[in-house]
Amino acid sequence: MKAWLYLTAEGLDAPCANWPCCVWSPTGERRRLPLHEAAGELNGRPVDVLLPMEMCSWLRSDPWPSRRQPRSQALAFAIEEQLSENLEALHISIGPRDRQHRYPLMVTARARFQALLALLAEQGIDTRAVHVDADLIADDQAFGVRWFGRWLLGGGLSARLSLSVQGLATLKPGLPEEMHWLDEDRDRQGIDEWLLSTGGHPIDLLQGEFRRRRQPLPWRGTSVAALGALMLTWAFSEARIGFLESETRRLYVQSEQRFRSLHPEQERIVDLAAQFQALQSRRGPGPDTQVARLTRLTEQVIGASTVEVQRIVFREGEGWKIQLTANSFVELEQLRERGQQNGLPVSLGSASKQNNRVQAILTLESR
In Å, how far from its chain's centre is CA 334? Predict the structure, then answer.
């Protein structure tokens, strides 16, 4: 049996170094002791941390149409209506797809989970993985397991729950008749071994920004890594500047060609923007051209936000496609709503989060 540290539900109200915990010996014997003493027992060994179900919520997506593993942001948006909090306040961990092509997700408060990991680090605990007790039950059959004075429901059920004895009595009439029941009062050690053998597929909460990091490099290795990072940053900046300059030249050539096709009488181009503006002012308000629609978008929608424009491309039949970088998904959603309020048919796609920034494609559809 690998090393387990169980943070019991008794300490959820006041997380601290005295949190009541349980560790198991290699022979499977329980030892109940406060967190700071458990850290001494573990003595720096990597450990799998087990959380009570009361700290998390378990959800499942609808059947996913694609065989490819979706991004975490896509699954988060798919279950957004089932959540009572803003996505940015939550930490969502994803499990393997089941037979119905659904993805299980474990949801917990981001700030609370971050504080928990900080508490473990302060005690010198090397956290190898983080699971939830009700999620340990193998998913081949529906089970109800009494463990540490509570009833855990899971396995083949479409839920993961922790209930008191009274709560189970209320819910039991609605449970399947083929439920299997196990009680720690009859075989505590056997149930411990069965749960901690991880015969199922429990979700590891150390995902995304909380993913387990590798051991820090020695001093010299750190210096080399820092130098390498600086060189990569410089090279990236140079490449980006070169790319932006080439894109600027390409867009100017395209704009000039488009201008000549619209105004063949303008044989000489000195200042493209000024000449175009002068022609527009002479003609007065005209049809809503693609360039005019892009101008409205940049002035009324993008200009009113803090997003950064990386690239603008026009495709016949699809409209303008603008690659953006924003601070959050919420800022992108506000951008989309502002576009609709201004009568511009905009949509967002290909949203992805990199470090602390969010990238997406804003499309202004053709009319």
Answer: 19
Backbone angles phi, psi at 142, to 5 degrees: -80, 130
| CB within 8 Å of 102: residues ≥ 6 apart | 60, 61, 62, 63, 64
Phi-psi region of 311 (alpha: psi -120 to 50; beta: other; left: phi over 0): beta
238-266 confidence digits (pLDDT tens): 888 888 788 888 887 887 777 777 777 77
- Amino acid symbol at 105: L
d(CA 250, CA 44) in angstroms, rounded, equals 58
Q: Which two tokens stand for residue 258?
A: 């488009």
AA letter at 49: V
- For residue 2, the surrounding DSSP H or E stretch is none
Q: What mean pLDDT comes out for the span 206-224? A: 70
Tokens of 123: 């005690």
Q: Which two tokens stand for residue 10?
A: 């008794």
pLDDT at position 286 is 46
Beta bridge partners of 311: 323
Residue 204's closest CA among 67, 42, 96?
Answer: 96
More confident residue, 318 or 105: 105
* Three-state secondary structure call for residue 59: strand
Compute the half-sphere exposure of residue 214: CA atoms within 13 Å on the CB side of its CA. Answer: 3
Could you tell me the two tokens for 240? 């980006």
Residue 356 token pair: 């602390």
Give me the residues paired with residue 34 across strands.
20
Distance in angstroms (rounded) separating the CA atoms of residues 105 and 175? 22
pLDDT at 292 (0 to 100)? 77
Residue 287: pLDDT over 70? no
Q: Which CA distances in Å does 208 have to 56, 105, 136, 313, 330?
A: 17, 13, 21, 31, 19
Distance between CA atoms of 344 and 319, rounded to whole angstroms?
A: 12
Tokens for 295, please give them: 């101008």
CB 59 within 8 A of CB 82: yes
